[in-house]
């Protein structure tokens, strides 16, 4: 089957292409994007199954013409609020299945509004199929089963800012003025207002006015703020008996957190754009790397905290991925399941609407390095509350 991979020469796209090329079901991968030199480099790395497809995602008419010749469109391009909707609309127009790794909650809301159009074309479009969202959504389905009733679900993210990715983003800005889309997403998600699901309704909050203390699975307590990830937008549709769903993010070290939220406040107030705030942040880091860049930063941690009742007892359950890590492999597995005909739903849907958690985790884990095979799929803790 033929795959059109948008943003295929990027950080996530390239590794996703390699995963898909290893599957017997995938016969051809079109690596789509605007930078023809980067496309050619990617094709040379992927091999004979791949070819370059010069395309501007914003040209929806041209993209739809191209998409009609493929079995699925996979969108790993960015920034997400600029490219996910055009990619999805073009796929629907072409009548071609679709999957992306979107992690911007505001864009996810707009994508879900295209559900009826996708159903009319008898196609499935899976949005947010990566690590978070994606794996995180499926963990939520698993976590719900641990209780008779649930009071609250909170997705907790700890971003101990990784110096290797920061250096890469700073270097890219210096070389060619490119403002890294992944770092733009960080600022988009922490800027307000953020919609969270409280008492059965979505409400908008200013992140810095709603800080909470979260406890990691290792016992460390850190302050986190509401984050505009899609899980709190999509899950209430599929777990309607859960009245409170939120995503919160803690950024460390503290001085870096202050820098991030200072720029995010400018976005919230309208003084700055996402791109300009990200640029200033990266320029500040690059101006004094000895101060800002630390060695051995671990990057993202993610866990889910759920409070509810089981057999009349109130408990707090936490779970987190162990072997199921990264973004490209979950995206590739989602695409392969769609191509194999294992998804029967139609419309624009998140992962929790079409994938069974445990079998999905097992397939993702089977694609991980063999030295991880003895590890569990996820960790979990249950604390019974007084």
Description:
This protein is of the alpha/beta class. The chain folds into 2 domains: 2-130 and 326-355, Rossmann fold, CATH 3.40.50.720; 135-320, Dihydrodipicolinate Reductase, domain 2, CATH 3.30.360. Helices cover 41% and strands 25% of the residues. The chain is built from 15 helices and 16 strands. The strands form 3 sheets. A 7-stranded parallel β-sheet has the order 3-2-1-4-5-6-15, sandwiched between helices. Strands 10-11-12-7-13-14-16 form a 7-stranded mixed β-sheet. Strand 8 (194-198) and strand 9 form a beta hairpin. Helix 3 (60-67) packs across helix 4, helix 4 packs parallel to helix 5 and helix 11 (254-269) packs antiparallel against helix 12. The mean pLDDT is 92.
Briefly characterize the structure:
The chain has helices at residues 11-21, 36-46, 60-67, 80-94, 105-112, 115-120, 135-144, 163-176, 181-190, 231-238, 254-269, 274-287, 289-292, 328-339, 357-366, and strands at residues 2-6, 28-33, 50-54, 72-75, 97-100, 124-126, 149-160, 194-198, 201-205, 212-215, 221-226, 245-252, 299-310, 313-321, 347-349, 378-384. It is α/β, with parallel strands linked by helices and 386 residues long.
Quote the average pLDDT.
92
C-alpha end-to-end distance: 55 Å
Classification by helices and strands: alpha/beta
Unreliable spans: none
Shape: globular
Radius of gyration: 20 Å
Sketch the major β-sheet. Answer: 7 strands, parallel
Our count of domains comes out at: 2
User: Can you count the beta strands?
Assistant: 16
Please tally the helical runs, counting DSSP H or I stretches of 4 or more residues: 15
CATH superfamily of the largest domain: Dihydrodipicolinate Reductase, domain 2
DSSP strand content: 25-35%
The CATH class of the largest domain: Alpha Beta
CATH fold type of the largest domain:
Dihydrodipicolinate Reductase, domain 2
CATH architectural arrangement of the largest domain: 2-Layer Sandwich
Helix content: 40-55%
Q: State the strand order across the main sheet.
A: 3-2-1-4-5-6-15
